[in-house]
Amino acid sequence: MNPAPGGIALTKKLLNLSRLQKGSMILDVGCGDGDACQFLSSDGYRAIGLDIVRCPSEKLNSERIQGQSNAIPILEETVDAVLMECVLSILPTDDGSLTEIIRVLKPGGILMFSDLYMRYPDEESEKNRIDSESDHPKIRLADELFNLFGETGLSVRYWEDQSTVLQSLRLKFLWEGSAPENKFPYKLKNIGYICLIAERVSASG
Can you tell me the distance from the alpha carbon of 34 to that of 72, in angstroms, rounded to the nearest whole number? Predict the structure, then answer.
């Protein structure tokens, strides 16, 4: 099961929005157990998973690379697309991962992205939102994400709110009997989930 909010259903949506041709090479950054890679491979794409943790061999039916998102062990301008699901928010701020994604993407390559974002900011959430010293997810406003991508060399072609997929996260907290504030320094009602398609429009740095 894909642990990212929305699961494989949201991965399918991103893939449809990307309009990638069958056989395209897709790098799944932060692939976890490799469920999205398995889906992509079964659907006719060449999927490569990247994660800092090794995946059990019985889970693999696609290529797998162990490594960091800010030091991807792939040659520049190699992949047609990058899939990044609920990864950016858990990375250290300005760690260089987006620059690496630009480097490995072919010119005109596609980023298929989904993550948490600050949908309804308030004074309390603004104090905690992007604290580079915190281990909590870095929750950005939608406009901040767009600007961050633009500064890196990615142009957002389409985006939409997918906050309904967070219902399962809220239910998980309730089931565990834990307060959301123990996981995030924000109110869950302020947090949304975004999916978007961006295109590489500049050369790597």
Answer: 17
Q: Measured over all CA atoms, what is the biggest interatomic distance in the chain, rounded to whole angstroms?
A: 48
> What is the percent of the chain where pLDDT is above 70?
76
| Residues β-bridged to residue 85 | 114
Residue type, 147: N
DSSP secondary-structure letter at 71?
Answer: B
Residues whose CB falls within 8 Å of the CB of residue 41, separated by 6 or more in sequence, listed in order = 47, 61, 62
Closest-CA residue to 20 (of 146, 145, 194, 157): 157
Tokens found for residue 48 = 């490569």
> Quick one: DSSP state of residue 72?
-
For residue 27, give the nearest of 88, 110, 91, 90 by alpha carbon.
Answer: 110
Please tell me what DSSP assigns to residue 87: -
**Residue 203: Cβ within 10 Å count:** 11
One-letter amino acid of 107: P
State the pTM of this model. 0.86
